[in-house]
């Protein structure tokens, strides 16, 4: 029988020697043979797939008991264990996100807002299909994409011409503080009756202050803050904020009263 030293096996499966000792002592991944005199541990090539599986599961930060249970679980049991772990990770993420928000509030006023090239332009009157959604920051993108898909399906079913790109309206000034409520809009060529959560919204012509956002959604709040300050200092009264995809990037802005 071909035997691999613990060092050789560690390299082949992607675990450290200390991790292999830990998993052996925990009964998760036992060596095939232990030398009675030296205490050296040896593994067989047949154990490589199991070792690689343990290494992959270890990256998920699973508790030891659940990792061990996964190795012999049926597909429904695997789903149940991973869903439970997903909920636990989301709770941990939310706790840390709240800590970050608390730190941000402490630092408020100590940071300089980013410089933005604030532009003022007319926003034409239009009718849109809209649906209201609410999602936490980590789930926001997926929820927004799903909402846009719903609106496009409704437009197609009603034989409506889509006349522009989708955009989101945010009626609260603070962005990504707790669940974010968004009115997802899709411009269409004519007014139709709503259905279920989908309604027809008519937006009047307004002036907006806007700027292209240079980063990802994680820093939207900084650009929104800088735009709000620039408009306020110019004597305007920013109201509803919006995000709009353009060929040049994401445009952030406010409707002005």
Description:
- With 257 residues, the protein is α+β, with helices and mostly antiparallel strands.
- It has three domains: 4-69, Multidrug-efflux Transporter Regulator, Chain: A, Domain 2 (Orthogonal Bundle), CATH 1.10.1660.10; 73-111; 119-256, Regulatory factor, effector binding domain (Multidrug-efflux Transporter 1 Regulator Bmrr, Chain A), CATH 3.20.80.10.
- Helix content is 40%, strand content 25%.
- The chain has seven helices and eleven strands.
- The protein has helices spanning 6-13, 17-25, 48-58, 64-70, 75-107, 137-157, 220-233, and strands spanning 4-5, 33-34, 41-43, 119-123, 126-135, 167-170, 180-188, 199-203, 206-212, 238-246, 249-256.
- The strands form two sheets. The chain has an eight-stranded antiparallel β-sheet with strand order 4-9-11-10-6-7-5-8, covered by helices on one side. A three-stranded antiparallel β-sheet has the order 1-3-2, with helices on one face.
- The longest helix is centred in the middle third of the chain and has 33 residues, at 75-107.
- The protein is elongated.
- The N and C termini lie far apart (81 Å).
- Residues 173-177 have low confidence and may be disordered.
- This is DNA-binding transcriptional MerR regulator.
- It comes from Deinococcus radiopugnans ATCC 19172.
């Amino acid at each position: 029988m071909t035997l691999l030293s613990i060092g050789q096996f560690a390299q082949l499966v992607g675990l450290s020697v200390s991790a292999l000792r830990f998993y052996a002592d925990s009964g998760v991944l036992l060596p095939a043979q232990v030398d009675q005199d030296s205490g050296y541990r040896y593994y067989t090539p047949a154990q490589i797939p199991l070792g690689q599986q343990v290494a992959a599961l270890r990256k998920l930060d699973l508790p030891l008991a659940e990792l061990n249970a996964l190795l012999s679980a049926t597909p429904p049991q695997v789903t149940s264990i991973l869903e439970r772990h997903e909920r636990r990770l989301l709770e941990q993420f939310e706790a840390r996100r709240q800590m970050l928000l608390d730190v941000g509030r402490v630092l408020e006023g100590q940071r300089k807002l980013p410089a933005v090239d604030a532009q003022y332009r007319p926003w034409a009157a239009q009718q849109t299909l809209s649906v209201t959604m609410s999602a936490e920051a980590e789930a926001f993108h997926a929820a927004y994409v799903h909402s846009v898909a719903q609106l496009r399906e409704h437009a197609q079913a009603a034989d409506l011409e889509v006349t522009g790109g989708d955009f989101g309206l945010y009626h609260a000034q603070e962005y990504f503080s707790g669940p974010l409520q968004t009115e997802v809009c899709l411009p269409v060529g004519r007014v139709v009756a709503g259905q279920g959560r989908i309604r027809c919204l008519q937006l009047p012509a307004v002036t907006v202050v806007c700027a292209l956002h240079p980063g990802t959604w994680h820093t939207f709040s900084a650009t929104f803050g800088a735009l709000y300050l620039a408009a306020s200092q110019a004597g305007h009264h920013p109201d509803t904020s919006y995000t709009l995809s353009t060929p040049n990037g994401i445009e952030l802005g406010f409707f002005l009263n």
